[in-house]
Design goal:
This protein has helices at about 30-35, 50-65, 85-90, 95-100, 110-125, 140-155, 175-180, 200-205, 230-240, 330-365, 395-405, 435-455, 455-460, 470-475, 490-495, and strands at about 130-135, 165-170, 185-190, 210-215, 240-245, 265-270, 290, 305, 310-315, 385, 415, 425. The protein is α/β, with parallel strands linked by helices. Bound molecules: pyridoxal-5'-phosphate.
């Protein structure tokens, strides 16, 4: 950003934030007495030198260029960018939690263990499973854990060698096939039927004794309830296949329906979606996993157990697949989710899902003339629409999204699911008011008109953001995040 120098570029030799008074009574020692002289650097580190106020202004201004859920509407489909209630933050900043150490003896950490035990019990209850773990740090990590447990299960029955394939719908999130491949499986894709559900004939044709698992997202990534879930799970179970539920979309079902009751064997939840803990650059999050009792022996160690009034970590799990994260996952995320569930309670949780579904259907009803739904059904917590009607003006989904930035909105998810041409996946979440939804819909409708009258404007967008349209492919392939004194950025990517 030309108008926003890096902190290194603001540096002036000799500037300091804090100077220790010369009268300080801390005895000074030569560095060579503290660090062996052969390990001492010969040149000082090339760090920025600034006054305290310069640093404060630099980072405060930088933070104000960030767009987040606290600054505006963030309808990023599949990501459930819901508001993170401040109550959660209050709980998670309690020093009684923040000052704990994961290696403390169990008896000195009973309060923390209680929070984790409550949460894993509630997550199992909400999803309809027999047990849960909070160890995975993200959704994809939860997916991988489920596949590793499924593999261990098949191995325990002498079927590990023969079951080499994982079935994944063609509409699935990219992490599903990636997790299956990471777990050593071959991935086979199952077609979507014309109504947006899974094609049962294709599923039957691909199911057999060579299949280890199916990964099914419900509600699907098309924002639709998979009506054939129970039948699909029956077909798969008859062939000895284990069924994993990708629970990234649980915000549409929380408190209303339980994947465990639909016949799934295991599932992951993203606490940073349904249970409102913050999303942060890929983590730290919690990809809580629930399992039916036949998979319980394979849960990662240590397993948190309650004996009477006491909680303790159980390491004696001979069939466990081992650990998937250091210590016990991201504990403070658990505190936030615990506070969230406590705040809503049994009566409040279904309201979350109802409002999420209502808001998505409201948006769909308002914009469908300009942006038709990919599959014309009542949607769940998100709607997938297509920008194909604008193609005749040379305008694509990406142009619509970039123009939304000029209107002050974060764009929806683009080009996902892959099977929908010019896809725009909009997830408003339950926390947005009607006024915000209306303003967003008006912006989209107005952009659709601009596409007809001023398509060039959309091609140039965003025009009001600190940076214009970047060459994203160039940036991804030539990632350069390290400052060098002689750094050169080509003119075409810095504008
Ligand atoms: C449907 C679906 N599955 C899995 C994931 C992966 O979750 P995470 O980003 O927490 O790894 C996502 C993430 O957005 C998702 O939308």
């Amino acid at each position: 950003m030309k108008d926003f120098p890096l902190i290194f570029e603001r540096s002036h030799p000799g500037r300091r934030g804090v100077r220790v008074p010369s009268s300080a009574d801390v005895p000074q020692k030569p560095l060579s007495e503290l660090v062996p002289s052969d390990l001492l650097r010969q040149e000082p580190a090339e760090l920025p030198e600034l006054g305290e106020l310069d640093v404060i202004r630099h980072f405060t201004n930088l933070s104000q260029r960030n767009y987040g859920i606290d600054t505006g509407f963030y309808p990023l489909g599949s990501c459930t960018m819901k508001y993170n209630p401040r109550l959660n933050e209050e709980a998670a900043s309690n020093p009684k939690f923040t000052q704990m150490h994961p290696l403390q003896p169990d008896r000195t950490a009973q309060g923390c263990l209680r929070v984790m035990h409550d949460l894993q019990t509630w997550m199992a209850e909400i999803t309809g499973f027999d047990a849960a773990t909070l160890q995975p740090p993200a959704g994809a990590s939860g997916e991988l854990l489920c596949l590793l447990m499924i593999r261990a299960y098949h191995e325990s029955r002498g079927e590990g060698e023969q079951r080499t394939v994982v079935l994944v719908p063609d509409s699935a999130h990219g992490t599903n096939p990636a997790s299956a491949a990471r777990a050593g499986y071959k991935v086979e894709s199952v077609r979507t039927a014309p109504d947006g559900g899974c094609d049962l004939e294709d599923l039957k044709a691909k199911t057999g004794p060579h299949v280890a698992a199916m990964m099914l997202t419900n509600p699907t990534t098309l924002g639709l309830f998979e009506k054939n879930t129970v039948e699909m799970n029956q077909i798969l179970h008859e062939a000895g296949v284990q069924v994993f539920c990708d629970g990234a979309n649980m915000n549409a079902l929380v408190g209303i329906a339980r994947p465990g009751d639909m016949g799934f064997d295991c599932m992951h939840l993203n606490l940073h979606k349904t249970f409102s803990t913050p999303h942060g650059g890929g983590g730290p999050g919690c990809g809580c996993v629930g399992v039916k009792s036949h998979l319980e022996p394979f849960l990662p160690t240590p397993v948190l157990v309650q004996e009477g009034d006491e909680y303790r970590w159980d390491y004696r799990r001979p069939h466990s697949i081992g650990r998937v994260h250091g210590f016990h996952g991201n504990f403070l995320m658990n505190v936030r989710a615990w506070a969230y569930v406590m705040a809503y309670g049994r009566e409040g949780l279904p309201e979350i899902a109802k409002h999420a579904v209502l808001n998505a259907n409201y948006v769909l009803a308002r914009i469908r003339e300009a942006f038709p739904p990919a599959y014309d059904r009542v949607c769940m917590h998100e709607c997938v629409v297509t920008a194909t009607p604008l193609k005749k003006f040379g305008v694509r989904a990406l142009d619509v999204s970039k123009r939304l930035i000029d209107y002050g909105f974060h764009p929806p998810t683009n080009y996902f699911p892959l099977i929908v041409p010019e896809a725009l996946m909009i997830e408003p979440t339950e926390t947005e008011s009607k006024e915000t939804l209306d303003a967003f819909c008006e912006a989209l409708l107005s952009i659709a008109k601009e596409a007809e009258t001023e398509p060039e404007l959309l091609k140039r967008a965003p025009t009001r953001a600190p940076v214009g349209r970047l060459d994203e492919a160039w940036a991804a392939r030539n990632l350069d995040v390290r400052w060098m004194p002689e750094r050169r950025v080509p003119a075409e990517v810095s504008s």
